[in-house]
Structures are given as C-alpha cells and as structure tokens.
Design a protein that fits this description.
This protein has 492 residues and is mainly α. It has 2 domains: 11-395, Glycosyltransferase (Alpha/alpha barrel); 413-490, no CATH class. It has 18 helices and 10 strands. The chain has helices at 3-10, 12-39, 64-80, 86-97, 136-152, 157-168, 206-213, 219-223, 225-229, 255-264, 266-269, 272-291, 325-331, 334-343, 373-387, 413-422, 441-449, 467-490; strands spanning 49-51, 184-188, 194-199, 236-239, 242-245, 303-306, 309-312, 322-323, 359-360, 370-372. The chain starts with a helix and ends with a helix.
C-alpha cells in the first residue's frame, strides 16, 4: 500500500478536501477572470464595481483603484497562462491613464493625483454625487499596479516607460501633512496640495508613504518615516492575545488594510515584523468570529457592500454580521474558503457569476447587489498565491534598506555622506536608520552593518553596485573612520 493511499484511509477527508479546493480554485479563477474582462472597457478605463445580477446593467464609474488592481490581476492571468492577450490589456489600461488613448483624459490635480470616480467614457470627473476628490490612495493603487505589471513584463519597454511616466507625474510627498506628525491627506485639491481630513498611521495609506519615500523630493515622507515603517511606533489593538496594527488603540483595522499592503507594498511584504502582524490580524479576526459571533469557520471582516451600502467591517464594528470569503482567501485559508464555497454552489444562483460573495448572518438570504473590484479581487490574489507562492513577492518593489539613507535602493558612499551631514540632527531624518525618530550613533552602526548590502528583490528603481565599487566604498569608509578617530583624539 502506498503512503498516499494509507494517508487517505487514515484521514478520509484529506483527499476530498484537496479535490474540493482544486475544484473551487478552477471554478473561481474562471469567474474572476471574467470579472476583470467585463470591468475593463475598450478605452482602457476600469469600472470600480460590477452588478452581480446578469439581468441588470452595470452603472458604476471607473476608478484608478480598480485599474491598479486590474493590472495586477492581468499579470496573474498571464502567469497562469489563461489570458493570451493580457499584456496588450495591460498596455491599454496604462495608455488610458496616461492620456494616450483617444477620447480619454483622466481628471487629475495639479500635483498629479487622479480623481477618485471617473466618467467611464472620458476619464473626466464623474460628478452627479460620486466622490470627486483627487485621491492619494487611489493614485497609489494605480501606480503600484503599474509597477507590478512592469516588473511582470520586463521586456516590454512601453509598459515600463508609461509606468515610469505615471510614477514621476504624481507628487505623493505633497499628500503628507506639513505638520510632519504622520498624517496623510485624504484628498488633494484641483490646484494641488492637501485638503480637508487626514488619516493617521496606521492604515492602507502606508502605500502612499512608501511611494513618497521613493520620489526625488521626499522631505516630508522622510520626516514621518518612523511613524509608518517602524512597527514599534504604530498603535495596536489586541484580541484573544493577538496584537494587530491600527490607527487608534481600542479600535481594529479592517482586513484589507494589511492585505492591500501584502499584495502591493514591498516595504510591508519583505519585512518580517509586518508579516508577524499580518498573521496576528488573521488570528484575531478568526478568534473574534469564533468566540463572539459563534461562527467556527466563517470569518473575514473587511470592506464591501452591505444591505445598507458600503462599509469597512472590523472587530466590534460589522453591521449585519457580514463575512467576506474574499478576505479569507487573501489570508490563505483555503479550508475555510472551501466551506464558503460548499454553501454557495456556483451554479445555484446566477448572481454568483463572478465568484464567491459576501454573506450575512443576520440576513441569510441576502446576496450583494454588486461586488467592488478592489475588494473582490482579494479573492483572486489569495487563490493565485495558493498555486504560485512567490508570484506577488517577486514582483513588488524592493524594500528600503536600513542603511539606505538617501533612498536610492543601494547602500554606498552617498549614504555615508548623508549620515555625516545629518548625524545628531532631529530635523533632517534621512539618517534615521533605526526608525526611532532621531539620529544618533546607533544609526551609523546600522549603516556600517549594511554597507554594500543589496536586496535580491527586483523591481523598478533598484540597482546593485559592482563588487569593485563596494571594495572602494569600504576603503573610503575606513579612511573616514580613521579621520573621525583622529579628530576625537585631538579634540577637533
């Protein structure tokens, strides 16, 4: 008797579960690809949401958010080999948002930020009661999706060129509040500059902060870096012993705050401390659902539609007790996802045509009217990662290195110069390698230990120094240390 057969006899549900997950994945990937294709317009704009009832008409405007997620999804379909023209679709979306497609001129602020809701035909401000703000987070989702696609199609020079043009055309640094207390503006004015409310660390706006750090004029982003990238400085809330990142102690984050960063932000994905909090968030979500809502498998508190409209569900704040299979998929919990699937037989309701939908404990017969692309595609991302674990990690931008004081993607003599020029300063925090909010001797130790260090992650705006150059830099730093020691011994 083979080991596999013996295992199946001892655990009779194991093979059935594996077969069920495979059937789930095959079915849902087809439906999710149809979703992306239906949302993407011939002119390159992407609807923010699709109506689930086949007898009803789609009505949602386009958003840059949806375009960014669609770019990642198209890259995934190309990787899976299920969409032969995925590369051309990516190009079409990028051209539309760069204003290169006939008849499409996206609404943008003077500092480059895209309007949240765009007319589906022209890209102009939608109006008519739809949010007409110029949105830093929407623009960040678009740029992150473009960079992801550029890394997936590295041989396509046009994709890379448009991505670089879009990236450089948006001033993410301008979205950071000038008070330098970590806040980021929710909106930009048409004339440029932040307006109205602002969010505090920590939330999905980490993506805005990460992109701002990588632009040339990044002074504000540098000054607030320790508020966003140092988990020791971030507010936390705990449930059942699981500490989670949040923007205010005592309140909890929706799942998408961490999940967006996991699939789109290299500074989150490639840092162990953030990965630890990603896991803790899932465990807290699951424990809350089991202990408080008495649901042993259905969990996933995240943003999406409810019977009363859109809501960002979270622990202690979840109208209608809605659970999201999209969030569970993004956590990577396919066993729980299979139980959602078994309760939503894919052919039992035509409204399941784009995949699993959110469910309500209070209203068991409720089916959402529509599914937002940005929320719904977390279902896709989780399924893709289940068959290609490194797909997202390999295509995200490189994390900032601890010794990379000038944020150019490599630790070299320029960083040593920055350290010398700024050590002891609490105003210019470019040398704050320890991310504790001030500059001191510990930062130079970090610089030394990372000297010449590089990351094995590829991506835009990242270069690796030649070995000979590194040896030159080591010699240079040694001479500088000798000069420093000489000055200290002579009192000069």
């Amino acid at each position: 008797m083979s080991a596999l057969v013996a295992f199946a006899l001892v655990f009779p549900d194991a093979r059935a579960s594996a077969q069920g997950i495979e059937a789930l994945r095959a079915d849902q990937l087809v439906r999710l690809q149809n979703y992306v294709l239906d949302a993407t317009q011939p002119n390159g704009l992407v609807r923010d949401s699709l109506v689930l009832d086949p007898a009803a008409s789609h009505f949602h405007p386009a958003t840059p958010d949806a375009a960014g997620f669609a770019l990642v999804a198209l890259s995934a379909f190309d990787h899976l080999g299920s969409l032969p023209d995925a590369e051309n679709q990516v190009l079409n979306i990028l051209r539309a948002h760069a204003g290169l497609n006939a008849g499409v001129t996206p609404g943008r602020s003077a500092d480059g930020h895209f309007v949240h809701f765009m007319n589906i035909a022209t890209g102009a401000v939608q109006g008519g009661g739809w949010d007409d703000s110029y949105s830093p987070i929407s623009s960040a989702l678009l740029v992150s999706g473009a960079q992801f696609a550029a890394n997936h199609f590295p041989a396509n020079g046009e994709i890379r060129a448009i991505t670089e043009q879009l990236t450089s055309s948006i001033d993410f640094n301008a979205a950071i509040h000038p008070a330098l207390d970590g806040r980021i503006f929710l909106d930009q004015t048409l004339q440029g500059g932040g307006s109205g409310g602002a969010v505090r660390p920590w939330n999905e706006y980490m993506l805005v902060q990460s992109l701002a750090l990588r632009q040339r004029d990044n002074g504000r982003a540098v000054a607030v870096r320790h508020h966003w990238l140092n988990t020791g400085n971030i507010a936390k809330s705990g449930f059942a012993g699981h500490q989670t990142l949040t923007d205010s102690p005592g309140t909890f984050a929706p799942a998408f705050w961490t999940q967006h960063q996991q699939f789109l932000n290299g500074d989150f994905r490639h840092r162990d401390e953030f990965q630890s909090f990603l896991e803790s968030h899932q465990l807290a979500d699951q424990a809350y659902s089991s202990a408080v809502l008495d649901e042993p498998f259905r969990y996933g508190l995240t943003a999406g539609v409810t019977p009363n409209g859109y809501h960002a569900d979270r622990i202690n704040d979840h109208p209608f007790e809605i659970f999201s299979p999209e969030a569970v998929a993004a956590w990577g919990d396919l066993d729980s996802l299979l139980q959602f699937y078994e309760e939503q037989s894919p052919d039992s309701d035509p409204r399941y045509r784009y995949g699993l939908v959110r469910v309500s404990d209070e209203q068991p017969d409720w089916v959402p009217n529509d599914a937002g692309l940005v929320d719904h595609l977390l279902l896709l991302f989780g399924l893709v990662e289940s068959v290609a674990p490194d797909f997202f990690a390999d295509r995200l931008f490189a994390p900032l290195l601890d010794g990379d004081y000038n944020f150019d993607g490599v630790v070299d003599a320029a960083d040593f110069t920055v350290w010398q020029d700024t050590v002891g300063s609490v105003v210019d925090l470019r040398a704050d390698g320890s991310l504790n909010g001030s500059v001191g001797p510990e930062d130079f130790v970090i610089w030394e230990s990372n000297f010449g260090a590089t990351s094995d992650q590829g991506g835009l705006f990242f270069t690796v120094p030649e070995p000979g150059f590194c040896r030159f830099l080591i010699l240079l730093s040694g001479l500088a240390l000798l000069r420093k020691a000489s000055r200290e011994s002579t009192g000069r």
